[in-house]
Amino acid sequence: MVKRESPVNCITCKYFYVTWDPKFPNGCKAYGFKSAARPSVSVRKASGMDCLKYEKKNG
User: Fold this and answer.
1) In this model, does residue 1 exceed pLDDT 60?
2) Total structural domains in the chain?
3) Quick check: is 20 in a domain?
4) Half-sphere exposure of 25 (CA within 13 A, CB side)
5) 51 or 1: whose pLDDT is higher?
6) In-domain check, residue 54
7) Burial 13-52 (b: 16+ CB within 10 A, else e)
8) With bands split at pLDDT 50, 70 and 90, how would you rate the model's confidence at 33?
9) pLDDT above 90 (res 4)
């Protein structure tokens, strides 16, 4: 498991996007899903691990 000093912040990830779906407003292009919660929360809940696809946005 990858240990991070702080939780993954999807908003700073290059794969995060906001969808037009009011029920599932948070999307992850790396994993290919939409969710009501931040994608990193959904990944942690499903796998018990931190997101392994996180990459900081450029700029």
Assistant:
1) no
2) 1
3) yes
4) 3
5) 51
6) no
7) bebbeeeeeeeeebbbebbeebbeebbbbbbbeeeeeebe
8) very high
9) no
Assess if residue 59 is contained within a domain: no
More confident residue, 10 or 2: 10
Secondary element (H or E) of residue 40: helix 39-47
Q: Is the pLDDT of residue 7 over 80?
A: no
The token pair that represents 44 in the structure block: 């942690």
* Angstrom distance (rounded) from CA 55 to CA 29: 12
Query: Which among 53, 58, 59, 57 has a CA at the least distance from the CA of 4?
Result: 53
Range of the domain at 20: 10-47
Residue 2 lies in a domain: no
